[in-house]
Amino acid sequence: MATTLIRNARIFDGTGAAPFVGGLLVDGNRIKTVFRTIAQRDAAADLVVDAGGRFLMPGMTEGHAHLSFENVAATEDLITPSPEEQVFAAARGARALIDAGFTSAYGASEAKLRLAVAVRNEVDAGRLPGPRIRAGSMEISVTGGMGDESREHNPRRGPSIIVDGPEEMRKAVRLCCREGCDNIKLDVSGDPFYPNTPSHTTTMSFEEIRMAVDTAHAYGRRVNAHTRSIAGTKMCVQAGADGLFHCEHSDEELLDMMEAAKDRIVVAPTVALFHQIVKGEASGSGLTSEIGGFMGIPRLLEESAKTHTELRKRGVRHVIGGDYGFRWSRQGTQARDIEFFIDYYGYSPEDALVCATRNGGWAMRPQRDLGTLGEGMLADMIVVNGNPLDDPRILTDTEQLVLIMKDGGLHKNVLEAGGAADANGRGAKRTTAAADTHEFA
Ligand SMILES: [Zn+2]
How many angstroms does the Cα of residue 85 sit away from the middle of ligand 1? Predict the structure, then answer.
C-alpha cells in the first residue's frame, strides 16, 4: 500500500482541539501516524507533501445530500426528467461535492430510487470522482402528505413513494433496501411548500415510522426523517430514527427527549434554504422574500435558531448541509452552512467545523473511524490556503482548497514540495504536480 506524508501543516484534527503544527503519515487508506512536530522532509514515504504551514483539516460531510438536485426550482424539475438523464445530474453533484472538499455525502432523498446508488457504485469503483456516499432513497410519504403530487383527476407520481399503513411501509422500505439504498427517508411532517400540510402538521403515524425503522435496521440501513413538527420529531425519537432533518418546532419535552437520545441521533437543521429565501437569494427563481413571508419562512427561521441553539447547548450532534442543488444554491456551496451555524445557532468556529467534519463522519460510519485526524482513522482530509477559524467563508472558495484526499487517494493536489505560505497562509504555487488530477486508492 502506498504511503503519503503531509508535513509542516497546521492541523485541526476535527475534535475541537486547537490546531497544532505537525504532520500525518497516511498508509493505504488510513492515518498511520500523527506527528506533533513539523515532521521530517526525508521521511520514508512514497510521496511527501509539504503543506507550507497551511491549515489541514478532515474532509467535510454534506449531512443531508440530494445528489440529483441540480438547478431545481419546483418539484416538477424532480419528477419530469428521466432516470437516464438524472443520473448524470447526480454524478455532477457528486463531482461538485468532492471538488468543494466534501469527502462524504450522507444521503437524504433523491428524485428517483437508484440515482445515488448508481453514482455511489461508480465512485466506489473509481470510475467517477465523488465523495463517500451513503445513498439516499426516494422519499417515502403518505397519501396527502408532503411529496404526494397526485390528485383524484391526475394520478401522476410525485418524487415520492406513497404508502398508507405499516404493511405498505414495510414493503416500501424493503424495496429501497433491495435496490441498494443506504439511507431511508421518511416524510413525517408537513412542509411550507405544501399548503395542505404546513410544517406544524404531522402526516405519518407512529406505527408507520416504527415499521420503517424496524425494517430498515433489520437490513442494516439507517432511517432519516423530514420532520418539522413537534409531534413528528417526538415520534421519530421514540421510534428509533437515526437522522432528524429540519426540526424547527420544539417544546421542552422534545428538547429533553433529543438530549437523552444524543448519542444515537444526528440532526441536520438545513438552515441554508430558509436563509436564502429570507435574504432574497431565491428571488431570481420567483421565490422572493415577500412570497417567503406569506409561506411563513421568517418565522420558521426564527424557530430554527431557537431550537438548534438549545440543541447545541445540550450537546446534540448537528451536521451541516442539506437542501442545496436549487437554482439559487448550487451543489458544492454547502460550506456556507458553517457561517450560518455560527450566526444562527451560536457555534464557535471550532465547533462549527466539528459539525462539518467529526459529526458528519460519525453519521457516515457508526464505527466512528471517519471525521477526525487521529491514528487509525480513515484518511479523508483537505489542506486550505487560509484559516477557516478566522474566516469560514474561505471554505466556499474551491480555489483555496489546495489538497483534497479521500480514502488515502489524492483527488487534488496543487502543493509544491517545500512550498511556503505567506503570513496569511496564502501563496500555494501551482507549478508542479497533478493540478486537478484524480487518483483513487
Ligand atoms: Zn432535503
Answer: 21
Amino acid (1-letter code) at residue 92: R
Q: Ligand 1 center to residue 270 CA distance, Å?
A: 8
* pLDDT the model gives residue 382: 98
Separation of CA 393 and ligand 1 centre (Å): 23
Coil, helix or strand at residue 225: strand
Look up residue 416 and give its DSSP letter.
P
Distance from residue 267's CA to the centre of ligand 1 (Å): 12
Cα 76 to middle of ligand 1, angstroms: 15
H/E run at residue 32: strand 30-35
- Measured in angstroms, how far is the CA atom of residue 322 from the centroid of ligand 1? 6
Cβ neighbours of residue 218 closer than 8 Å, sequence gap 6 or more: none
Model confidence pLDDT, tens digit, residues 171-196:
999 999 999 999 999 999 999 999 99
Q: State the cell numbers at 218.
A: 433489520
Residue 340 grid cell: 450560518
Is 213 strand, coil or helix? helix
250: which 3 cell numbers?
420544539
- The CA distance from 208 to 142, in Å, is 9
| Nearest to 67, CA basis, from 331, 268, 243, 319 | 331
Closest among 308, 313, 390 to 341, alpha carbons compared: 308
The CA angle 319-325-331, to the nearest 5 degrees, is 70
**Residue 185 phi/psi, 5° resolution?**
-110, 125
Distance CA 107, CA 104 (A): 9
Task: Mark out the alpha helices in 381-429 (DSSP H runs).
Answer: none
CA distances from 163 to 113, 139, 160, 167, 209 (A): 15, 11, 9, 9, 11
Among 321, 379, 382, 324, smallest CA distance to 101 is for 382
pTM of the predicted structure, to 2 decimals: 0.93
Residue type, 300: L
CA-CA distance, 410 to 392, in Å (whole number)?
A: 23
**Residue type for 169, please?**
M
Confidence label for 441 from pLDDT (cuts 50, 70 and 90): very low
In sequence order, the β-bridge partners of residue 56 are 11, 383
**309/314 Cα distance (integer angstroms):** 9
**HEC per residue, 100-160:** CCEEEEEECECCCCCHHHHHHHHHHCCCCCCCEEECEEEEEECCCCCCCCCECCECCCCCE
